Amino acid sequence: xxxxxxxxxxxxxxxxxxxxxxxxxxxxxxxxxxxxxxxxxxxxxxxxxxxxxxxxxxxxxxxxxxxxxxxxxxxxxxxxxxxxxxxxxxxxxxxxxxxxxxxxxxxxxxxxxxxxxxxxxxxxxxxxxxxxxxxxxxxxxxxxxxxxxxxxxxxxxxxxxxxxxxxxxxxxxxxxxxxxxxxxxxxxxxxxxxxxxxxxxxxxxxxxxxxxxxxxxxxxxxxxxxxxxxxxxxxxxxxxxxxxxxxxxxxxxxxxxxxxxxxxxxxxxxxxxxxxxxxxxxxxxxxxxxxxxxxxxxxxxxxxxxxxxxxxxxxxxxxxxxxxxxxxxxxxxxxxxxxxxxxxxxxxxxxxxxxxxxxxxxxxxxxxxxxxxxxxxxxxxxxxxxxxxxxxxxxxxxxxxxxxxxx
Length: 407
Ligand SMILES: Cc1cc2nc3c(=O)[nH]c(=O)nc-3n(C[C@H](O)[C@H](O)[C@H](O)COP(=O)(O)OP(=O)(O)OC[C@H]3O[C@@H](n4cnc5c(N)ncnc54)[C@H](O)[C@@H]3O)c2cc1C
Hints:
Layout: E1 4-7, H1 11-22, E2 27-31, E3 42-45, H2 47-55, H3 59-65, E4 67-68, E5 71-75, E6 81-86, E7 98-101, H4 102-116, E8 122-124, E9 128-134, E10 136-141, E11 146-149, E12 151-154, H5 161-166, E13 174-187, E14 195-201, E15 205-213, E16 222-231, H6 263-268, E17 270-280, E18 292-294, H7 309-326, H8 329-353, H9 358-367, H10 381-395, H11 399-404
Parallel strand pairs: 1-2, 1-12, 2-8, 5-14, 12-18
Antiparallel strand pairs: 3-7, 4-7, 5-6, 9-10, 10-11, 13-16, 13-17, 14-15, 15-16
Helix pairs in contact: 1-4, 1-7, 2-7, 7-8
The chain binds flavin-adenine dinucleotide (FAD).
């Protein structure tokens, strides 16, 4: 088969290249950016994603740069503990959960692509502008180049040009009503030193806090990823790298002083502050057309609130490569759509309805904006666990599903 042309060297595109190469299928990767820089802030890789990356032999490289997430902890905005549960290997999974800088994850994948497949198969400064197909597929780039291949996979993210050509009437992403400020701060370890922490609720502001690099200086500080989310009709255009200022949002957090974190001081010490409205798109009716298909955010952009954006792209990559190994191209692309469209659409919709932080919404609705005396009088431990488990099942990383799924 002629090469698979992969458009986009993000998490999905690079993983797909590695998955195809592992199966002896030729591919080339085309990326808009003239060089790949460590942009973005933190990402979490759940056990379904690390299982797949483990099969690619990448766990040691990830472990060297990431923080192995040990627990999830939920607090109200007064710093009172609501619920805590172990994660990853601590929760009995055979695979770890990692909190990682997006740039570090991309670098691990990129290094593997260069070493295993060859740097000459990665084309930087190639921004796809359009494609056509007729027995083969022809990809056209802004730099004037045109490349022919056996299949074209749009791994070109939420602003996908390939998706736009397939669905010209679709329009812009859909705003959730929640604006997010994201950033990183160098800080001494708090709680377990590897906790994924969420606090508050969207009316008054919600904090997400997790370390993504250990021991970054002589004082043993970590690089900590954070998010501040607030319900508001006001937002600016979506751009993963739009710079912002702490002053834009800190007023709502001024009295957030927990025994484990002085939240305003933590925000003020940030190295990087970015603003990003929470957006997604409605699930598509189809995404494979002849020799062309979509993968990752291009296929199913979702709210970044369940740690699933990168994970679902990684699962797509494994599914598509494995089908291309055993089927004729057009048939494989359709089978991939049949396998992955419905499960990823479920995650998109569940992230809107009831994400993992639904626990915080539940407590906010039961207590109002007030501290509680005793969490057991607000909600039972069983209800809390059920809320947490529900999301794992929908997103496909509950322990039983993972253990039973084929490698
Ligand atoms: C700059 C950036 C920063 C991000 N930061 C975060 C973050 O901090 N936290 C988080 O949870 N998620 C972040 N994300 C999103 C996250 O990476 C994705 O949700 C997830 O990993 C799925 O990855 P993907 O490969 O489908 O898409 P992406 O990771 O978005 O990758 C898409 C790639 O395609 C390239 N591309 C786009 N258009 C074209 C074109 N026409 N031709 C060629 N190449 C093209 C882009 O430059 C990019 O490299 C970020 C994405 C980007 C692009």
